[in-house]
Amino acid sequence: MAKKKELLSCRGVLWYLVFCGFAINYMLKINLNLTIVAMVVPRRNAVTITGTECAKDISGMRYSNSSLPVPSSLPQNKDDDTYEDRFAWNEHQQGLALGAYYWLHWLTQLPGGLLARRYGTKLVYGLGNFITAILGFLIPFMTYYHLYALICLRILQGLVSGVVWPSMHDMTAKWIPPNERSRFVSSYLGSSVGAAITYPLCAIVTSAFNWGAAFHVTSLLGVIWYCFWFFLVHDTPQQHPRISEEEKKYILENLADCVHEEETSIPWKAILTSGPVWITIIAQWGVTWCLFTLITQAPTYFNFIHGWNINTRMPSDAGHSLHDGWDGGERRHFRFHFGEHRRHGPKLRQRSPRFFRDDRNCQRIPLASGRWRFDDQ
Fold first, then answer.
1. How far is residue 309's CA from residue 368's CA, in Å, rounded to a whole number?
2. Phi and psi angles of residue 85, each rounded to the nearest 5 degrees, phi first
3. What are 90-106's pLDDT values in tens digits?
4. Per the confidence metrics, is the pTM higher than 0.85?
5. Distance in angstroms (rounded) separating the CA atoms of residues 136 and 28
6. Rounded CA Rg of the chain
7. Where is the chain membrane-spanning (predicted)?
């Protein structure tokens, strides 16, 4: 009698859970980056929209005295606004809150791999995400208690989650044959998907409930993931109670010459004096600096400098948000200008808008500019 073919192999289950694990890891890492926009009191006059009162000709460029209507999607700092659930943090304090996660995050990168080798990736990788998620539930409480309490909590989150990435390499070596590893490591891209999901998810939750709910939702997803990880994943094929004999035999035969269980000494001197190692470190440091600076500061920058209301619109929809924001009496004079194409904004999606065009005064108005620039009339 022919054996029934499995719908999903244990390696397939592992791929999905690793993918979701890295997505959760990034969710818990960057959820504060966007949510902080709804946590702090907006600065007054963060976005200046009206033009100057005088007209100047500088190098053939003309500045008009026209006063332009303000899009309703931009922050309006009114005197009667109240921000009972927000904090009057300045830029330095916001920077401390945003950067605290990374201060000790690097310290557990190397121990993470060594811990996984000794105690197993199931424990190290799983607890790295689970403890970070549990601490995430405390963020709203700590934030209301004191800014420094939030900073200490984020430092602890970063320290714990630092073991996640290096610990996975040990499990990959024990579960995945060499000819399948290039496909399996695509599960590491869950981090990119997690980053892509976190911003719109936090924006929707914050807009629908409050900023504290964003941390509760992302942490809850982390706890749910850990439940699946705990019951479905095991450190080696030999320890897995539900793996088929056929799959176990295939894995062990292909890993026979790749995995060595005996202890070996680490050649620290050769590693630390290797030129290619240091070149790789410097390159990775530069890339990581740019990446995390961008994903950490971008939401605050676009909200307070460019005036995007990130909590009610997705960043990709910002152009339509600005277009739809003009009041009914004035919006008929404005339309998107797309190079050679001219149509009303919502109907044209081939290219992103570069500027508004005021058909009434024949003026070009660049998007996201600190001042309004006009062409010669």
1. 13
2. -100, 20
3. 889 999 999 999 999 98
4. no
5. 7
6. 26
7. 12-28, 123-141, 147-167, 188-209, 215-233
